[in-house]
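Exercise 7.
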Amino acid sequence: VSTQSTGAQEQLLDSQVRELEGHSEQGRHAKSWAMINTITGKVPSTTGKIRGNSPEERVGKWRDHFSSLLGQPPLVENPDEEIEPIHGPLDIDTDPFTLEEYRIAKTSIKEGKACGDDNVAPEVLKRCDLDQIVLDFCNKALTKGEKPDHWSISNIIPLLG
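Solution. The predicted structure, written as tokens, is:
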């Protein structure tokens, strides 16, 4: 009996694999993944999914959720109360950057990536001899607060409409 059962299971699996291959060849990725989940017995997770009868209702639920997380000021009983520091002063160097520190940081620049907001290719910063110019620019921003205005502007791109 178990041999027949095993044979039927193998036939079912062969059939499912052929179906999976067909979906894959046709570029039907969602159906391919659904078939993989069926074959492996994986149940899709509902984590991160918001229930709602329409896209607008789901967006509203997300907005309400994040408003409750981010939109409420903390409740403070006595705003004038002195708060004891948890840690003592930290040993953080606040002097201007050194040329050696800049050169160490420059080694982490990845080439072949897109330009940033400054439209400077990473290769230019990494390969051209601009070390002293960039270092002076960064130190002026650090010590005197003289920086481009767009350094103070954040681009927030909403994902839900």
